[in-house]
Structure formats: structure tokens, C-alpha cells
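Good morning,

Attaching, inline, the C-alpha cells for the sequence recovery test we're adding to the shared suite. The designed sequence is right after.
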């Protein structure tokens, strides 16, 4: 009788634990899909504006996409952006762009960038 009583709560505990894991992985999946869409939209925007970019995307052995790079300065300046590296069109890793400058400057800027290899 003791085994039947102990078995039911263990099954319920297992179901509760696995359902919460599924919910967490679902939100991670949705976040990844939104990020993928952001990068794909950036690449398509570049391709739409310039046919040479389309050829480079299709022929380059690798490229790096930075959808949002922020740049600003007032005497001292800098830029920062997060991006993704692609090899033959497949995502192979995340990259970071950082830049520091010094000199006569004032203002800010935001832009997107693709670097081809």
C-alpha cells in the first residue's frame, strides 16, 4: 500500500517538472525566432537596396551582419553592435563590434552593417 501512495505524487511531480521545462524552452524558441527574423530582415533590406549585395550574399564564403550599431561621441567616442557570423549562408556564431575614438566629434548615429569575406 505504501508504494501506491508514494508513486502517485512522484508521477505528478515529474509531470510538473517536465511541463515547466517545456514552457521555458518554448519562450527561448520564440526569442530565437524573433532574433532570426531581425537578422533576416536586415539582410533582405541590404539586398533590396543594392543588387551587388545580393550577389555578395550568395557568393561570399562568409559574412557578418550587424543589424543595429550605435555610435556616439563628444571628444571621446565609441560604437557598439551585436551581430551574427554566417558561413555559406548558415549561422555559425555571434560576434561583437566595438570601436573607440578620440578627437573632435559630437553627435550620435545608428546604422546597420554587413562585412563580407
Amino acid at each position: 500500500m505504501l508504494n501506491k501512495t508514494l508513486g502517485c505524487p512522484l508521477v505528478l511531480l515529474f509531470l510538473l517538472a517536465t511541463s515547466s521545462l517545456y514552457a521555458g524552452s518554448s519562450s527561448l524558441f520564440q526569442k530565437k525566432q524573433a532574433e532570426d527574423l531581425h537578422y533576416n530582415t536586415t539582410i533582405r533590406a541590404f539586398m533590396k537596396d543594392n543588387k551587388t549585395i545580393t550577389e555578395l550574399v550568395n557568393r561570399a564564403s562568409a559574412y557578418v551582419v550587424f543589424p543595429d550599431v550605435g555610435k556616439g561621441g563628444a571628444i571621446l567616442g565609441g560604437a557598439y553592435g551585436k551581430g551574427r557570423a554566417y558561413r555559406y549562408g548558415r549561422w555559425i556564431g555571434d560576434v561583437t563590434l566595438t570601436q573607440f575614438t578620440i578627437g573632435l566629434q559630437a553627435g550620435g548615429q545608428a546604422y546597420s552593417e554587413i562585412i563580407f569575406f
